[in-house]
Specification:
Elements: E1 6-11, E2 14-19, H1 30-45, E3 51-56, E4 60-62, H2 67-70, H3 75-93, E5 99-103, E6 106-108, H4 110-117, E7 120-124, E8 128-130, H5 144-152, H6 154-163, E9 166-168, H7 169-175, E10 180-182, H8 187-199, H9 203-216, H10 221-236, H11 239-249
Parallel strand pairs: 2-3, 3-5, 4-6, 5-7, 6-8, 7-10
Antiparallel strand pairs: 1-2, 8-9
Helix pairs in contact: 1-3, 3-4, 4-5, 5-6, 9-10
């Protein structure tokens, strides 16, 4: 089934998912949220895709929720929407395939939350970030209260959420919210080059690393180390690790097959 509000293009094992409602600054209406869920399921299931780049059309990444839809929801409907959005964004976060957010403009509300759910964030120097939900008398509903604090610390996250402050890309980089800031015209090239660097490595090792980092955040240091050792042992039983170590010793590039 084709997408109405997204485009999905694949080249050289890299998928580029673009939220495509530029006239609405790519605001997340219910239909777009549903399509994001279908898209991440497609990306995770396709063998011709190794990694995903998420971006927005026009001058916004995603400028938040569609307020016209949100305004009419009951308490039960709003909770159901939050739970659905959280579940879909969690699929991006737990994807065994790396996900890079290429933040080209406004990443506000749900847009900031989707960027937070991606594994890595590359931002245009014109990008803006914020969680302005308290201005609407509500709070972030797609994971912002949880992921922002994990990235930038409790105190700064609390300040950003309670003041509804919008910050630029340079400040987002200083806080650790984004990994890299580049000129706008270089954004997609930079994200693609980073993804190529990632995909040159073993896919099983990439997936295991993503899983260990994600699960380890909710564990004690001893539990996290035990998980790391378990996965390290699992990798030793793979053809990919045998190929990687052999290629290193033979001073050649490895050929990983995901086995």
């Amino acid at each position: 089934m084709p997408y109405q509000f997204l485009t999905l293009e694949v080249a050289d094992k890299i998928a580029t998912l673009t939220v495509n409602r530029p006239d609405k600054l790519n605001a997340l209406n219910d239909a777009t949220i549903d399509e994001l869920g279908r898209a991440i399921d497609e990306v995770r299931s396709r063998d011709d895709i190794g990694g995903l780049i998420v971006t927005g059309a026009g001058r916004a990444f995603i400028a938040g929720a569609d307020i016209s839809e949100l305004a009419g929801k009951s308490a039960a409907e709003a909770r159901a929407l939050a739970e659905k959005g959280q579940g879909i964004f969690r699929k991006f976060e737990t994807s065994p395939k790396p996900v890079i957010a290429a933040v080209n403009g406004f990443a506000l509300g749900g847009g900031c939350e989707l960027a937070l759910a991606c594994h890595i964030r590359v931002a245009s120097d014109k990008a803006k970030f914020g969680q302005p939900e308290v201005k609407l008398g509500t709070l972030p509903g797609y994971g912002g209260t949880q992921r922002l604090a994990r990235l930038v610390g409790k105190g700064r996250a609390t300040q950003l959420i309670l003041t509804a402050e919008m910050i630029d890309a340079a400040e987002a980089y200083r806080l650790g919210l984004v990994n890299k800031v580049v000129a706008g015209e270089d954004l997609l090239n930079s994200a693609n080059e980073m993804m190529k660097q990632i995909l040159a490595n073993g896919p099983l090792a990439i997936a295991a690393s993503i899983d260990a980092i994600d699960k380890g955040l909710d564990m004690s240091i001893d539990e996290g180390l035990a998980l790391e050792a378990q996965k390290f042992g699992e990798m030793a039983g793979t053809d990919d690790m045998k190929e990687g170590t052999k290629a290193f010793l033979e001073k050649r590039a490895p050929v990983f097959r995901g086995k």
